[in-house]
Structure formats: structure tokens, C-alpha cells
Automatic annotation (TrEMBL), chains A, B, C, D:
InterPro entries xrefs: ASADH-related (IPR051823), Asp-semialdehyde_DH_CS (IPR000319), Asp_semi-ald_DH_pep-lack (IPR005676), NAD(P)-bd_dom_sf (IPR036291), Semialdehyde_DH_NAD-bd (IPR000534), Semialdhyde_DH_dimer_dom (IPR012280)
EC number from the UniProt entry: 1.2.1.11
PROSITE patterns linked: ASD
Superkingdom of origin organism: Eukaryota
Annotated protein name in UniProt: Aspartate-semialdehyde dehydrogenase
GO molecular function: aspartate-semialdehyde dehydrogenase activity; NAD binding; NADP binding; protein dimerization activity
Organism: Suillus plorans
Residue numbers annotated as active site: 159 (acyl-thioester intermediate), 261 (proton acceptor)
């Protein structure tokens, strides 16, 4: 079992522990080499009950024994004071206030909610892409009143954004700026939570619309793939890929798939002539994110697995490979309109949600951003 | 009941009458105001049997009484000599030889097969788009040896091509040439025929590949939307949209939907500035193909129905509107990379297959290309 | 168009007009030969809006023009005073009070809700089975305070019960009492209303449980197939099949099907030896309910359609036959444990819901139970 | 890692290695503590190719490295001479001749095919039920010409039979003979192999018929749950549960589920009064098959897992529990017609197919029926 820098078990709490993302956090953290589940938080309706009675468990593996009889708490900071890390799987309507209160209590939150993604001092981190954005944390802490020593919020991206920015980052690293990107998604229903999409709306159907999703993808991509600019006044700002303007057009669809977002992506590079499909395949295979090189335990062996078969990736066959922690790319070929097109598959409940938060926390531990006592 | 020009019932034959497309031909023709089903042709395995015993009927309405006891014939021209029109629902592996033999016997064939779509003297007609291409027929007849008086082959397009070229044609008519088009399809399994896609491959899945489909869409679009050029030698040729080169990039996916192809389309116009989304909506609503204005009985009231709701069209709700003879468009909006993007839904077994052949035949009757005695 | 006894258009109102059952009522009544939609009732949230803006329309045909601009009313009797018939598609949590208030206002209600099905003076009528139970209406009217002249409540059965009691009734009519019946259902998700069953719970899944459903089927069957006993005191009571006790065992399952409940049924007759499968088939084909013989316009030609193919009925192929107003039976064969087993398919949103209420109203008109002025 | 009696690796071969069952054998055997995959056999079309090129791999885990480059052989006994055990995943049309030839070559075959299930000297073994039937093997060997020393055929049951005979066996062990059993299945499409059920036939549908399946279930149940009778002539015969005649009625349906057969079962016991639901639950939980007590490594901890939640088992949530090697039972309750009813879920590709063959082989090793050198 891999060791964290200090060789200690790190106590973690989970907010929204009875929800879909919370259940996924529990499933993953129950077998984590560093993190120990210490507190489970949920709404007042669940508080006071043992977890087994509070939850409507929907995972395909049983409830881990370590949490079965744990008494669920309300989401108040005092119950989580001993936790070095808080994972939040809260719904957006609750996350805003609760996460703010937890940060004010000097707690470190890794959130899957959308509420603070656009905050200019909160990093939006896809762990296989832009771990460097953790450098904004001191500024975030300084801006609080009173300034914080340990507390902060780190968010991860929307499940549809996460999957395709990983290959985009690999391509920009190898070939320089991407100028435009057109992406059409075919998204799994688990991305909408539970109960989520009614069966009547999705069996034998496609819904060519997901409220707010296209705008999220188009905006988040710029924050994630952009850098951090240092202002003359010493203030850091996310540059939104501004030095090399990147135009993104997303079309988002819901399809009758349980887990796994499939996306058709076309890109145009600034560099002329653009790379060939074979060069693109090689760059994707070669991509090694920092999270791999510094040894985050939840990182997959293949950040990007490149398929050679003409009909892959497919969600049903490929979504659980490497526990869903990497992404699959296939059908890399020329695009007659832009330069290169390919298909991406990302497991929206793993790398698209809980796994991202967990690797973000691992990065923060290894980089000393989370203080482990 | 509408009258054809001569007020006569027109005898028609159906090739491949027991297959999926053949069954759809029968369902539609059994209630057609002009056409009378006169002969059913199928493989030697079915020949000699009454239709009811030869077919594994998969339509949701019962076998029409007019064909129930009709004895199925082999696909030899002598059985079809009395037919003014032959509809072909043959598979590609049989269509090449049989359709050629029928044409040599001076019969008029409207084919759903792909075999002759690329023939330089065979028109590839989407009836709500390029009926003008019927003008190549005399040249086709003259090229046969001996030259033909009545026989010819007209093909209709691949089901995925058909749906999206209708709005593209409406846009070119209103705003001039389209310069590039990027289309991502989510195609129904009925497009692959029967037995077609195994359930194990498609339930809870997306298959991001359909062999040959992308190439078909990219090529057929040019032939359909292009014009006919008159050479100095008096020879007509399809110009493949050459005067205004059009780049098309298609990404084709199979999704767990029974009927109805959904497509996300982005286009860039040559005209600068491009039309606004509202202008595009109005042009789509206003589009009136020739087949409507000259009174083809199977043409829908709305060639293009434009939805205002944000989440439409959807295959399960919209595919049977107008008996699937028109197309639905929704979500017309700006594309940050090209100019305009929108969603198209087309019923692949109706306007995408049998209905196209039937309207093509109606056009040929009204234009005098088919000689009705 | 068929005439009602008095040749007049009959004004009807619809309660719960924006819900799933209400939408089905509208679709069917918009083309009804006798009934004219006069008032639409819904919750206060919808009241005051034109129907088009109040409803989230989920039918596969467009909103009928006759109701598009009709202003939705609250479910208060005064708005419905001119209606000779009220159809109720209300949810169970609202139906109890509202239907009672409407009856008190001397209105005739045909309800699809479960609230009054077990009331000893309310008939539970499957229109192709037990129209004779309308004879309890005078007693129901007399029991109200003050007694009513025109008002009453008639309920129809649960969608799963409806389908299989039709063949059971045909069998009892031909062969005498059934002694025991074991039925296993595979029910469509539309039976649970909208939003109903989450997609995450039913795609690639079977849920072997529907709360309360088995108990409903076991109880309702007895009320429907039983007679009405006249007590010494002149009081009529439903005899619950008591003279020939009937044991029913139901196992109810939800399957990933949009519309159409499929059921595997085994029965044991009192008569020894029991009828043969061929005799059973003939009895099912021959069954002619009163609603057919007296000319209810919404009754199908075949109350029970008997399939000969070994693999029918199937929901996707057979559920819309005859507009879903009849039932399909197939695979009639010997049961090694009881006597005879077979498969039933019933369209749960048609004969299993709105169509039943409508035929019940037609029966009531033809029998003079509803007073048409 | 558990040890086999002799502590040696046992070489095994797989017939039909490229098919669906063969792929499952490979996935399971690649991590088996005793068995080493030594030869892969398939049709002449595949023979000579490395496995990776011969197979169209459809499992959700990658091809195990141990077989990736193994050259596929034709199914001739000489290639398998070094194998102590042969697993057969052959299709029925090939299994008859090939398995017979292998047995004649004195090889021990554990077959998933149906061909020899009804042979009076071939045991039909569900490993958690009737391992005692291995005692017929010496008679089978003696009947061959020339008599065999090591070769034999053991079959396992049809996937639908396997699941429900396990709880039936537990109930007979606890409460004595079952008199009648009525079972309705909702079977996954993977039970039909690949390509198997067309997507067009099963999406949004139920097919209430599987050719031959009901008869198989009704017959196999008697052979499996019956004993072996010793005739006066020393000849052993399967008694088909004859001392306590058992009537079985099966109704088999195909539903849109990838893996996992769900079954609704009602039973009547000979014992009066019958056991209560609670007694039945306890007997199911307590059931310990011989395969568990003697230490077969592939046996699950819970042969029968009994759910307390009202809506379980469900295929999507429960089919992969314990790697699909046990069965799940839920909803144990009284049956108003017979005595007790409940729901069974069995993973048809695991305990319903490959896992059964493997545990049968483990039993044969531990009992000395397979001679390990």
C-alpha cells in the first residue's frame, strides 16, 4: 500500500453522503490507502440514523462495512473538526452555504458541486490536467475575513467537461494551442443524479438538451486549459486561455446509457500544418500528468487509453476499465472541416465526479497544500 | 383522394418485399391514392408462397389485406412487365444485378439500395431537395445498349444523409452556399435492417462507428446539394457542389433507439455576416419544396417542422409526426466555432427510406418521366 | 359517425387534464363521435393558463387544436356544471376529496383513480367485463345526503387488473367458475405515471416489486368477476365471487417497456375435466361483451385478439393494435400445475386507463344511467 | 491461494474459446488457483491465429495476458492430450460430435452444451445442488467401447434451470418433497449468446417465448432434483424425482436486460401444513452445499443470499455480487394458490454457465473423479 508523505492515516469527512456522488465517495474511500472515513454528513432528515438506514443504496457493491453503522451527522463544521479533508457531494442548492461555512471554519473542501467553479479565487481542477492551479489557494485564503490558514475550496469540473479536457490538454502540450473545438456529447443518465431522468423520457429516445450544460462546457474548458496570470498588483487571475483565444462549441445530448459519457470531438490547431492522426495518437498515449509522476494513488496507469479497433470506445465495454479513473479515446482521424476528430469516453461517476475530487485531494496532500498533522 | 394526372391506378411492383424496407413499402403503398401493389418479389426461398407465409412481419400494423394472399414471385423482370413502377427494397448484395436486369427490361426502378448512388448517370434524389436531378434520366436511357424508352434507375439517399440535407437545402436556398458543415449523428438501430444490431451491442450503450456511413454522408451530400453541369459535348454531369466547395465532416453513432435518427449539425455560410438564428428559423419554416407545390400526395404539410421548445425534437415523441414524411428541426442557435447549429430528427424508415422512394416516383409521374399508359 | 341515443353532442369535463391520464383522455375525446370537451380542470398552478402553456405534453401526436387555447380551470364543480359527464384522471392524493365534491354537486364521474374502487356502493367496472355492475348506481345515489338524481362515481380498475380479467371473464362465461389463478406481470413504466420510474432504476433492469399492486390485483379481480347479491333488506352488495371462491396469486414486476403490460396467466377451472387449449382459444375468440353488442363507439372489433404465432403478443408490436382498446392473448397451452396457461398483453394507458373510463361512460349513456338532456 | 489435493497446477483446455461462454471461461480461469489454461480450441476459421486476432472480445475486462498470444487450435483431441480437464463452451451444433470424440480419447469434459444433458449415463450437475450425481461416472466410462479410464462427460444445466433449482434444493432438504412448482422467468439476452437477440426485437419490448426453454426447465429440474436409483441388475438410473412426483410449469420470457435471469417462483410442498415464509427464509440462508463444505475455491460465501428489502433482487444491482457465483432470493411470502412464492435472481453467464462448469470440475478433482497426475 502506497504511503502518503507522512505515513499517517488522514481523516476525511463526506458531505452529502447519502446521495449518488456521496455513495461513490464512500465506495472509493473505503479502500483508499491514505484516507479514513471519519464523519458522514447529510441533511437533517438523515442525521442521527445509522448510515444503512439513512441511505437508499444504489451501488452494485454492498455498503462497505466501515460505514454501515456510522451515525450520519448534519452538515455542521463542528462535527467535522477532526477531518483534514472534506469531500462534498452536495447538491447545488445546498452546497453554496454549507461549503462556505466549512471553509470559514478553516476546513479544506474538495467539492463536486458547481457553486464555486466560477469564483475567481477558487481553482477548478481536473486532476489529470491542471493541478498547477492549486497555486491560487494562498490567495483564496488571504481573501477570507479573517484570512484562513488551512481552509479552502477546490472544485472539480462538470462531468462532461472533465472527460474531453484531458485529451485536449495532452494535445496542447504536444502541439501548442488549440484554436477551436467542436464537441457533441452523448451523456449517461447517471450524470443527472437520482431520481434524475425519468425512464419515460429516455428509453428508446435521445434528449438533445441538458439545461446549462453546453454553457458550462464552453466556459469551464477555458478556465481549466488556461493559465494563471500574475497582475502588476500581485493578484493572480485565471487567464481563460486568453493569450491564444480558444473557441468551443458544445452540443449536449442525453442518451439511454447508465454510466459513461461518449463525446465526438473535432479540433483545429493553431499550428500549421496540423499534426497527423498518427502524431495525435502518439501524443495521447505519451501523455503523463503530474498526478502520475508524483504518485497519487488513485491515478490510473493509462491517463488516456487509445483504442485501435474502429468501433471503440463504447460505454458498456470500456467505462469500468481502470475503475473509470482514466479516459478512453478512439477513432483518431482527420476532420474535413477542422483538423482532427476523435471519440472520447469518460466515466462520469468516476473521473467525472468522485474520483476527480479524490485525486485532487491526493495532489493537495503531496504538494503540501493540505496540512496533515 | 388526390388524382394522378391521368386519373388511373398505376400498377407497381416491390422488390425485396419481405425485408424491412419492403414491409414499409407495403404498409405505405396499401393506402396510396395512385399506386396499386401488383407484384411482390423476393428471393427464391420465399417465391411461390403467399405473402403471409413468406414474411416475418415486424410492423406495428397488421399485414394489409391486399397483399396477405398474394403469391410472392422471384425477382425476374417478366413477372413485373405490367408494372409502371418498381420499388426496390433489396439488400445491396442483390440489388446490383437485379436492378440492372430490370432496367434493361425497360422498367422504371426507384431504389432504396446504395449500389447505383454513385453512378454518374443515376440521380440520387431526396424528394424534398433535388427533384431537378430527374433531368439526367434521358441521358441515362441513351447510355444503355440498346437505349431505353421507359426504363431507368432513380436512387434515394442513405437514411442519415436524407434527414439533414433537407434543412441544408432550405438554408442554401435562402442564404446562398454553405461552406462547411459538421454533423454528428445518433442513429436508430432500424437503420441497420433486421436482424441488424445485436441487443447485446446496443442496450445501455453507444457504438461510435457505423461502417462506411461517414464517407457516404460526406459524398452523397455533395451530389445531392450540387447541380448538374452541361458539358461542351452535351454531356450532363453532377457537379458535386464544385462551384462553391463544401466541406462536410460526419461522425456517426448508433444509439439504443428503435426509429429516428437525431443529428447535431453546425454550418458555416459563405455569406458574411451569416444569417441570425431567427432568420434561419424563418427560412426553415418557409421552405417549400417542389414536391409540395406540384402536389405529390405523400408529401407532408410541413417539409421542415421547427420546434420552439428547448428540448425538441426527440425521436420517441416526434418521429411519427406526419407519418415520418417530414423532418423536425430544433435548437437553432449560434455556433461559437462555425455560424449556426441546430438539431435535426428524421424518421429513417419513412423519409429516410421508403417514403423517399415513393415521393420520388410521384414526382416522376407528375413530371412525365414515368410514362403512365 | 355513430350516433348516441339522442343524437346530441354531450359535453364532458376532464379533471387532472394536464397529467398523463388527462392527456390521454384529451387525445381520445378530441375525436370522439358523441363527447365534446367542454372544460379542463387541473391544479391551481395550472388554472388560468391556456392549456398549451399549462401542460408538459408527452403524447406522440400534437395537442388537439380544440383544447390548445382552452383556459384551464380549477377542479371546482361550478366550472363543470354544464357537463353531463366528468372524466377524472386525478392522482390518488387529490381524487378523494375532489371526486366526492363533484358527486355531491350531482355530477356523473368516471374515474381512473383508485380512491373509491373499494367503496361498497361504487362499481368497479372493466367495460368489456362487468357493465352489469352499473345497476348499483341507484343505491349509491340514494345513500348520499341529500340523495342524488344524476350524480355518481364509477371507477375503472387498476391497469394490471384490467388486462387479465377480460380473458378470465370470457373463460368463466364459457366454462364456468375459475377456481384459482396465478398471474405474473411484466408491467410498462407508463403505468407509474410521470415522472414515475427513474431511468436509473429500470434501464437494463427488472424491478420485481410494485407497491400495493399485487394486493390490488388480487382484490379487484374478485369484485369485478363477482356478482351483485340482493340482501333480504333490499340492499345490494358485491359478492366478491363468494359462491365459487376464487384464489388469485399475483406477482408484479416492472420492466423496461414504455407502454403495454404483459402477463403470464395460469388458471384452474372448477369444471373437471377442464377445457382443452383449443376450446379455450375458441372461447376467447368468440367472446362478445355487452359493450360491443349495444354499440359503444370506442369498443374494439376484437375484444380479445388471439395470436397463433408462438412468440406473440409482444408489447412493442401489439400494444397499439385497435388503438389499444382490446387485449391480445397468445400461447394458450396446458399448464402442468394448474389447467391452462397463456400470455395476455393489454395497453395500460388505453384499455388499462382512459379508454376504460370512456367506454364506461358510453355504456352509461346507452343504458340511460347518464341523463343526457 | 487455496491448494488442490495434490498441490499441483492442473492443465485445462477450452473448447469454443472464442465464443461468449468461452470468453467467460477464460476470464474466470485466468485467475483460478488450481487450473492453468493450456490449450484454446475453436473452429478451423480461428485455428492458427493468436487468440487476440481470432476473438471478437466482448467482456468488460481486457483479454487476460496469459492467452493474448496463445495460438488457437482446432478442436481435435490430440492438441489437448496434456489437459486433465476440458471445458466446453461449444455451440450445440458442434458439441455433439466433438465432445464425443474427446471422451473417446479418454479426456474429461465439463460441458456447458445441451447435447448430452438427457443422456442416461451423463450427469446433469448444478454444483450447489447435486454433486452426488458424479457417482454415475464409472457407469458412463464402463459403457464406452472400449471402456474408459479417465474420460467422461459432465454437463451443467440450462441457465434458467440452474438459478431456481438451488433454492428448490434448499427447500426440499429442509422441508421434504416439493409437489408442484410454477415459475415465470424474465431472462437476460446474454442467455441467447452472440449475436443472439436482435436489438429491434427486444428494446422497449418483452418476448414471451424462448424456443425449447420451458420444456428444458420442466425436464432438467426433475433430473437434477431427483436421485439415482440402483436397479436389480446393478444399473444406476436417474429417478427423475419419481418417488415423489413433482409437477413443474415454466413460462419463459425474454426482457431487455443484459445479464441476470429474474424468476418468480411459487411452490407447493407435500408436507402439510407447509413451512411459513420465515421458516423458508431461514432454510435458504442456512443452506450449505457440499461444494462449500469440501472447499471448492470458486464457490461463493453465500450460496443463497436472501434479501430483506421489498424490491430486491434486481439484475442490475445484484447480478455481479460474489462474481455471480451464488443466487439471490427475495420477497419470500405466502402464495394464495400454492404455498410460498419468492423471486430468484441468477447470473446466467456465471453460475448459469461457466462458473457451474468450473465448480463441477473442482468437485470432480476433490472427489477424485478427475485423476490429477
Amino acid at each position: 500500500m502506497s504511503k502518503n508523505p507522512d505515513g499517517k492515516q488522514i481523516k476525511v469527512g463526506i458531505l452529502g453522503a447519502t446521495g449518488t456522488v456521496g455513495q461513490r465517495f464512500i465506495t472509493l474511500l473505503a479502500k483508499h490507502p491514505w484516507f479514513t472515513i471519519h464523519v458522514l454528513g447529510a441533511s437533517s432528515r438523515s442525521a442521527g440514523k445509522p448510515y444503512t438506514l439513512a441511505v437508499m443504496w444504489k451501488q452494485t457493491t454492498p455498503i462497505p462495512s466501515v460505514v454501515r453503522d456510522m451515525i450520519v451527522r448534519e452538515c455542521h463544521p463542528q462535527h467535522f473538526a477532526e477531518c483534514a479533508i472534506i469531500f462534498s457531494g452536495l447538491d447545488a442548492d445546498a452546497a453554496g452555504e454549507i461549503e462556505s461555512a466549512f471553509r470559514s471554519a478553516d476546513l479544506a473542501i474538495f467539492s463536486n458541486a458547481k457553486n464555486y467553479r466560477r469564483d475567481p479565487s477558487v481553482p477548478l481542477i481536473v486532476p489529470l490536467v491542471n493541478d498547477s492551479h492549486l497555486s491560487i489557494i494562498p490567495q483564496q485564503q488571504a481573501l477570507q475575513n479573517p484570512p484562513l490558514k488551512k481552509g479552502f475550496i477546490v472544485t472539480n469540473a462538470n462531468c462532461s467537461t472533465t472527460g474531453y479536457v484531458i485529451p485536449l490538454r495532452a494535445l496542447e502540450k504536444a502541439f501548442g494551442p488549440i484554436e477551436s473545438c467542436l464537441v457533441t456529447t452523448m451523456q449517461a443518465i447517471s450524470g443527472a443524479g437520482y431520481p434524475g431522468v425519468p425512464g419515460l423520457d429516455i428509453i428508446d429516445n435521445v434528449v438533445p438538451y441538458i439545461g446549462g450544460e453546453e454553457e458550462k462546457m464552453e466556459w469551464e474548458t477555458l478556465k481549466i486549459l488556461g493559465g494563471i496570470a500574475d497582475g502588476d498588483d500581485g493578484v493572480k487571475t485565471f487567464d481563460m486561455h486568453a493569450r491564444h483565444p480558444l473557441r468551443v462549441s458544445a452540443s449536449c445530448n442525453r442518451v439511454p446509457v447508465i454510466d459513461g459519457h461518449t463525446m465526438c470531438v473535432s479540433v483545429r490547431f493553431q499550428q500549421r500544418p496540423p499534426p497527423s492522426p498518427q502524431q495525435v495518437r502518439e501524443a495521447l498515449v505519451a501523455y503523463t500528468p503530474v498526478a502520475q509522476s508524483i504518485g497519487c494513488p488513485s491515478v490510473p496507469v493509462h491517463a488516456i487509453f487509445v483504442h485501435e479497433e474502429p468501433d471503440r470506445p463504447q460505454p458498456r465495454l470500456d467505462r469500468y476499465y481502470q475503475d473509470g479513473a482514466g479516459v478512453s479515446v478512439g477513432r483518431v482521424r482527420q476532420c474535413p472541416v477542422l483538423d482532427i476528430k476523435f471519440v472520447v469516453l469518460a466515466n462520469n461517476v468516476s473521473i467525472g465526479a468522485a474520483t476527480s475530487s479524490i485525486i485532487n485531494a491526493e495532489l493537495a496532500v503531496l504538494k503540501g497544500v493540505v496540512k496533515v498533522e
